[in-house]
Structure formats: structure tokens, C-alpha cells
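=== RUN LOG ===
request id: a7f3
mode: sequence -> structure
chains: 1
length: 130
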Amino acid sequence: MPPDYTLAREAPHLSQGQALERVKALLAEEGFGVLTTIDVAATLKAKLGVEREPYVILGACNPPLAHRALEAEPAVGVLLPCNVDVYQLGGRTIVQAVNPRKQFELVSNPGVAPIAEEVAQKLERVLEKL
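=== RESULT ===
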């Protein structure tokens, strides 16, 4: 069972590489662009000599929703973009995203809660379509 600060789904029929490409396409369908791509496995190999299964973190942003959130609470930028991880664990392909509902509980401004809910619904649709 994934922790409550994530939205997660196993993609048993996809390799990590296939899942990564599928997730990028599904994020685009929901209005997200991928601002950053961090290959955690390659970075750990290069910096520490550590071998691990494939693990990529995508920094996804939905510009209209990010704009609304920043208008409501300028400091919310420290919580952006939304991280979406695509990785293998024991040969299983997992896709997880930050749970915006939990993440934005840190913000005391109630104006961001509906935006967090909208982002969460979009990310859940991405996971459901895997």
C-alpha cells in the first residue's frame, strides 16, 4: 500500500521505459508539461557508483493551474512542480505522483485547496489510464 502522500499505480504490462513514455503522453493530455527529467539511477551511478533499478523523476506542471495557485499564494512555488516518478522495484514497474491534497495541506491559504483537488484529479486520471 503506497503512503498517503503519493498517488500510485503499478503498471505490470509496461517496462519502465514504456511506462515513462506513456506517462509523458498522458500528462500532456491532462495539460501538463514536463519541465524536468531526473534520471535518479544514472545520477547515483555517476556520483556514488551505486547500481539501482531504473528510477526517473518527472517535474510536471500544468501552467493554468500553477498560475492560479501562485496568484492565490505566491509562496506556493516551493511546492511546484508536481513530481511524478516512474521506476522499477523488484522488476515491477511503478508510477507514483505526489498527492497534491496532502502536499497542499502545508498551505494555510484555503484558496489553494480547490486547485490541489483539481491537480489531484488530473494526476489520478493519468494513473488510471496506465
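=== NOTES ===
The longest strand covers residues 82-89.
DSSP finds five helices and five strands in the chain.
=== END ===
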